[in-house]
Prior knowledge:
heterotrimer, B: alpha/beta, Rossmann fold, six-stranded mixed sheet, 42% helix, C: mainly alpha, ABC transporter involved in vitamin B12 uptake, BtuC, two-stranded antiparallel sheet, 2 strands, 72% helix, disordered C terminus
Amino acid sequence: MGVFLSNLLNGVSYGMVLFLIASGMSIVMGVMGITNLAHGAIYMVGAYVGWTIAIQFGLDFWLAALAGGIAGGFIGLFMERVFLRHLYKQVNEQVLLTYGFVYILTNICIWVWGGRYRLQFTASYLNKSIDLGTFSFPLTRIVITVLGLIIAVGLWYLQDKTKIGAIVRAGMDDKEIIRGLGINLDVVATFVFLLASFIAGFAGVIGAQLLSTYPGLGLDVLLLALAVIIVGGIGSIQGSLLGGLLIGIIDTFGKALFPGLAMFTIYLAMVLILLVKPSGLVGRKA
Amino acid sequence: MFKKIVSVAFTLFAVGILVLTGCAQQPTPTTPTSASPTPTEKPPIKIGALLDFTGPVADLGPKFKAGIELALEEVGYKVAGRTVQLIVEDSATSVETAVEKFKKLVDKDNIKICIGPLMGDAHLALAPLAAEKKVLITSLINGMYETLQYKTYIIYPTTVEAQTYPFGKYAYEKLGYKTAVVIAADYAGKRGYAAGFIKGFKDAGGEIVQEIYAPLGTPDYSPYISQMKPADVVMYAMEGPGPVSRLVYQYRQAGNQGPLITITQDGDYTPEALAELKDIALGIQGEAAYTWKLDNPENKNFVDGIKKKTGQVPSCSEQNAYTLTKVILAALEKTGGDDSFDKMWAAVTSLKMNTPAGPLSFTPEGVAITDMYVTQAEKVGDNYELSAPLYTVKGVKDWRLP
Amino acid sequence: MAVVISNSNLNRAFKKLFIKGLPLGISAIFLLLLPPFLPNHIQGIIVKFLIYALFAISYDLVFGYTGLVSLGHAAFFGVGGYVVAVLSLHWANNLFWLGMPLAIILASVVAAIYGLIALRVSGTYFLLLTFALAQLLYSFSWNVRWFNSSGMQGIANISMPFLGFHIEWNNLSYYYFTFILFAVCFFVLTRIVSSPFGHALVGIRENELRMEALGYNVWLFKYLSFVLGGAFASVSGVLFAYFNRFISPAQFSLGTSFLPMVIVIIGGRGTLYGALIGAAVVVFAEYFISLLTPERWPLILGCIFVLSIMYFREGIGVYLMQLWKKVTKTNGSASY
Lengths: 286, 402, 336
């Protein structure tokens, strides 16, 4: 029972990190029709900036998380305003452009911070574990889970209950009408991208309590985000949350039960889910 | 308009980087003190190096380079009356790139000696090529037994299995552990390291209760940690300093207090990694082929040199590259500057020398015979450092060799 | 060019030939006549260039002409390579006439299966699903012992192909061998894309709904294009395995799937020659830049990708072709 519980909790907290990573990318894909492969790289830069603030300068962890988010937002703003807004709905060009940015951002990180791994870090007062009988559960994982839920609820509220969310959702379906109503969709679109990139950078620091920080993070995180989006579907918070949790749990239990098969279980799960429900579990119609 | 400005800026940026780094990348200068060359001066001896500056182990490239350069600086880039030219290429932690750059070094630069690359897979891909082209090629940290059939590789410090075999025995005989769980990164290189430990532990009488192999780049080891069966000790062998730190950290965070031991500690516990791990790293004993606290004259000299060059104490990366370069230089002295393969092979395999890591000799198959140590992390004042050897095994040789 | 073109049929035909022929002629000179004069290691690079160009034109059929954005094309490249690698590893067989057809057949089978799965969705979902399918092969080739040489991930020491008669294999001879295969594939693909089938593919890319309305079995056309693309990709995989004498799971990875996409986009999609130009840009740029700056080359390469999208939206190859057309149109246009 103890093993099952520990795996479940670990899977959920890992899944929350995945949700944080993927949610921004999924929204941007669904809302703006932008495939941003550099989303993982933005996460990575956020993590590095957070590391610099928290470890190198020894400042408060939450300040570091904020700094990571701001850094992410900056990069996102730059990419969107200068390049991506000219490539609306052109998947191929977006792919090449954002892939180019992955190269650029990864190499800049090696340049500035060097190639070696950074250990997980967190605030000193969070660096403890809670005793749950047969095993201990680190406080950082609880922090991640709670934060993930808060952000999920916040984004869901934004998506379903606010005017901006309504505009965004309507814009996903029919741009012409929205524009016809006099709403400046460009500003809204930029805002969405900025928000997604901020979350990515912020998530980079939050996730750095669990994952290490290293230059390859950009691509590794991209693969994870793609997995979540495949399973959960494009364009909805619920989908990303569900996808993240599912992948986190499947991956954790898969590794625990069939250690030899590891990555195979995730990709097999992805393919099977897509066979049954091609647009992902909660995705909008393909 | 703005788009134009940014595009121009981008282009200038890219070109600027290219020019700046391209200019800085001139081949390492030969001694500047030489007077005008005499008419009969022979051409420089070229040594190629395949190091990783990009990719997952990008931080090791500069360390290896520092070791090689220090060895060359000590002789003023001269050997057997000729100048030495070092040509370094990025193998990008990719087998394909390693093969491509190797071909470039051999075909364009006409090197007959190559140091590296690091990746075990690259060794196996390059060995047939190196044998064909008659190029002397060396390992850097891990040596693959399967390359021996090509008789082209100089393996230092020894094969991966032989490196950890003595430590397996040590864990049973000296540390008193009777049962062990082994967790290793799932690729051929680390599996080899683990296999050596497992064999040593079993041969001494121990029992391996469980073997777990985690995929490369596993972000979250908790599922593996939670399924570990009870045992006297857990031995971990992950693919690099980052994953090592991650595993140890997550292991302890899950409330496990039991003892940990490891292998290749000399490579994983770099000064930077120790500074980050802090107390978590203490008390874990590990196999090491080198520690900067070794007490011999060559090492004192070497550590001083690296400290001056990089500002850090060396780990095995710098040392291995340094010693391999010294081996090559010594062999070149023996052959009188003749870098052809047959002469070099004979010269290297007949060498006996003292290195910062201890005494060194070679088997006829090209595998080094060196000493192995056991170390651990210790706190000295405010610093976390690798200790001096707790235990020494002399003259480790792969048991499969005659 | 102040050449006076008179209004005669002969001159017109000659002019047409000149316009079409010069780019072809220049390409022929570069591809056929230049190589023996290049230094040995550069000959190796042009082999790599042709292999990836072939990989790219196979992808162009699927992506450029049919508009299917697949992120898993490496699956077929890898299958091709692994077939000859396994033959070499387990049966010590390097007979080209066995390895190549077997590779094509197996890759086509994989493409046939994968096509059935992937073509149930479209757009971004198709992108993601093809990616997942290729990743399956990646982890399969990594984990199953049988697909690996002892001591490594992947298969090493693959022998050069045996053609039934003796050939002195070196960079130059292998280059011409690759060129022959490339030329055959290029020629066949040219015939495919200029056939009614090929035109239908373009129609599907442009407006799928209309093609449906016109009575085309759109799914079948897409499927055939996908499978054909896979078959041609396997040829490049075979050439890769022989040339590098190793293959590894990395040949199934996302990076390998990206490569033909990047090449086709840079060179110009939907035009087979675009893939050639794109491959030249990517392969040569990466090689020479990494020699110049072993540490910063990914940064430069990334900037090149970004700039080529902003400046050469249609692709550098298409841009060059348009430039050429502009130059040659400045005379005689009024005389028609």
